[in-house]
């Protein structure tokens, strides 16, 4: 598997943890930030778990979960901006990073499914 997706998802998780700490401390926002914290850190956790998959089907399933968590993270990031809790200057880089991770995951899943 491409370790760059593992590294990108880890770096993304670190950014999410820091953002959620900021949301809790500076904005006193706990509900949405907790949702984002869970989905944003789950991407990398599922990618790591996929490394220990017991079969190709298990690997693909874990990577699909990571892909779904990335999609959910994008939702929370968009919502935080739309609700005027965060500015576009904060959300846009995270949103773009999430899209990049999604593309990588999609490629890994597609390649894994095509291998016999």
Supply the key terms.
elongated, 116 residues, 4 helices, mainly alpha, de novo design (two linked rop proteins), 84% helix
Describe it for me?
The chain is mostly helical. It has a single domain, classed as 23S rRNA-intervening sequence (de novo design (two linked rop proteins), Up-down Bundle). It is 84% helix and 0% strand. It contains 4 helices and no strands. The protein has helices spanning 3-26, 31-50, 56-82, 88-114. α1 (3-26) runs antiparallel to α2. The longest helix is centred in the middle third of the chain and has 27 residues, at 56-82. The chain is elongated and about 50 Å long. The mean pLDDT is 96.
Computed over alpha carbons, the radius of gyration is 15 Å
| Domains (count) | 1
Helix segment count?
4
The helix/strand series, from N terminus to C terminus, equals: HHHH
Report mean pLDDT, rounded to a whole number. 96
CATH homologous superfamily title = 23S rRNA-intervening sequence
**Which architecture per CATH?**
Up-down Bundle
CATH class: Mainly Alpha
User: Can you tell me the overall shape?
Assistant: elongated
User: What fraction strand?
Assistant: under 5%
Number of strands: 0
């Amino acid at each position: 598997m491409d370790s760059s997706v593992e590294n990108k998802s880890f770096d993304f998780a670190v950014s999410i943890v820091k953002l959620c700490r900021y949301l809790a401390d500076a904005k006193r926002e706990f509900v949405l930030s907790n949702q984002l914290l869970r989905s944003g850190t789950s991407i990398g956790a599922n990618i790591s778990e996929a490394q220990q998959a017991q079969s190709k089907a298990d690997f693909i399933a874990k990577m699909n979960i990571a892909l779904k968590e990335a999609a959910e993270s994008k939702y929370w990031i968009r919502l935080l901006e739309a609700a005027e809790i965060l500015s576009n200057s904060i959300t846009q880089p995270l949103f773009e990073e999430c899209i990049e991770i999604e593309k990588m995951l999609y490629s890994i899943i597609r390649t894994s499914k095509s291998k016999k």
